[in-house]
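In practice, a research group might receive sequence data for several interacting partners and want a quick structural hypothesis before committing to experiments. The following worked case mirrors that situation: the sequences arrive first, and a predicted assembly follows.
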Amino acid sequence: MEQSKKRKLSEITNPTSESHQTKRLQTKPVGGSRLQEITNCLQADKQDGETCPICLCDLDTDVVQLGTCKHLFHRDCLEAQLGESDWLKCCVCQCIYGLMKGDMPPGEMKWRLLPTLRCEGYPDIGVWDVFYNFWDGTLKGVKYKGTKRRAYLPDCEEGKKVLALLIKAFERRITFSVGTSVTTGQKNVVVWNIHHKTSLDGGPSNYGYPDEEYFKRVQEELAQRGVVIESEDEVSKTITNSVGHRYFLI
Ligand SMILES: [Zn+2]
Ligand SMILES: [Zn+2]
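A structural hypothesis for the assembly, expressed as C-alpha cells:
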C-alpha cells in the first residue's frame, strides 16, 4: 500500500512551471484524501483578493495549493474536478497529476532497430522504425476509420529516450485519439496527439530529420501529458530488445 502510494506520487510531473508561485504561503498537509494522494496538495491560508480559477469566486475558505505547480483552488472545486478519475490537470498551467489516461482506440505499436537505415544528420547510427496500426471500429457509439502510421527515431540516446516515452504514452492510450484530421478535414478518423517524425529526411517542413528542436519539443509534449522517464534504467528496461510489440485492446 505504502509502496503504491509512493509510486503514484512519483508519477506526478511538472515539466514547465517551476516559477509560477513566488509568494510564501503557510501550508499544512491535507489529511489522507484521494485528492491529496494524487496531487500532493497542501492546505493554504485564505487569499485576499484572489479568486479560484475554477469557480472564479474569492479564495476565502478551504484553500488548497497543488503540490507541484503551486496553483491555488478551493478544495471542493478540485474534488469535483477530480471526481472518480485517477488524474487531474491543473486548469491554469495544464500540469498533470496522477496517471493520465487517454481515449485512444484499440491498436498496436511495433518497433524495431534497422541498423543500416539512416536519419538525415545521423550518419553513423541506425534507425528505430516505429509502426502503429489501428483498425476501423466504434468508440462511444461512433464509427471511426483506422489508420497505419510509421515513424522514425535515430538510435542515439535521445532517440531511445523518446522511443521509451512513446511506448509509455501508447500504454496510457495517449498517442492517438479519434477526431478530425487536420490535413484532410475528415471526421472520425484516428489522429496523432503527439508529433512524430514520419520521414527520414527533408527537415521539419517534411516531418523529417534533421530537426534540432524535435527531441526537446516532443519530450515537452509528452511531459505535459504526464509521460516522463522516472528512473535511470527505465529506457533500457522499456526497450529490452531490438524489436518490440505492444498490443492494446479496451
Ligand atoms: Zn472554487
Ligand atoms: Zn498549475
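Before designing any experiment, note the following. The chain has two domains: 2-98, 107-248. The first helix runs from residue 2 to 10.
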